[in-house]
Amino acid sequence: MPAETNHPTVDELKKYLMDTISDFGDLQSVEKFADGQSNPTYKLSSSSGQYVLRAKPPGELLKSAHQVDREYRVMKALQDTDVPVPKMLHLSDEDSPIGRMFYVMEFIDGRILWDPALSEIPANDNAQRGAIYDSMNKTLASLHNVNVESVGLSDFGKPGNYFARQLSRWTSQYEASEVDRIEEMHTLIKWLEDNMPADDGVVSLVHGDYRLDNMIFSKTDTNVLGVLDWELSTLGHPLADLAYQCMQWRLPNAGSFRGLAGVDRPALGIPTEEEYVTKYCERRGIGKIDSWAFYVAFSFFRLGAILQGVYKRSLDGNASNPEKAKLYGAAVPVLSQMAMGMIKSES
Asked: Measured at the alpha carbon of residue 14, what is the angle toward residues 11 and 15, in degrees to the nearest 5?
């Protein structure tokens, strides 16, 4: 059933939310956010203020995907750490008024920046652009420094080689979503299998989709007020998050891609990839990173697998934004080609 026919209504939610969330006022409207592909997200307006509801999508779902309960758990656990997250208010079960699991969190009144080149910032304000990147860097280091045991997340992931587990998981999900065979994706999978670094035993909480537009920034300064979209979070290797964000430096800033390749970064006050990685390592007290090409190539593959899943859901009628999902499907072979090109030049 198409996602748009499953838009929650005021009547469905009003009594339930007033009964389950303390001081929740009279619900007046439910407005779907246009962006977001995986879990449809809605702005709730009530007499007591504004809130955000994030739900599983309708329809048949891939195993282990769309786990909004994991998002809820991790953000609730991070509430009193240095990692900024919205306040969690309620998690429903599957038998909710809308027929699927959802959670409600506070609405953070800030700004979301969509373009990694920060075209939203005034042209002459290089200092602000640099400070925004530094805030992202600081927040990422803070995330990876969280003591997972002290926040109750020591069981939030499986033991063993994180990249081996992730490669197996995303290969299975990619193959389940593949519509037409993309040879470069299969070549990339084989290269990653053959060039897997030895497990160094490093484990941290990882976000899984750490990028500019999954953060809410203050409207008055460059501080991060909230990190969003924790669906892919788990216990894993911190370099997965770092490499995934640094992939932005290599993606084009055109078409369906929002990256920094071809952008005159020094002229905008944006750090180079090397500068960003160096600052992160300083903040975490770690040395030079070996096998960097593997981590970045893995990030390309994983993003391709995610976008393929979004595209497949659009064909099945279950994508949150069907038109954008089709563009994402076209991006998958491009990502795998870029990854193989990078491997040939840097590994």
From this structure: 110
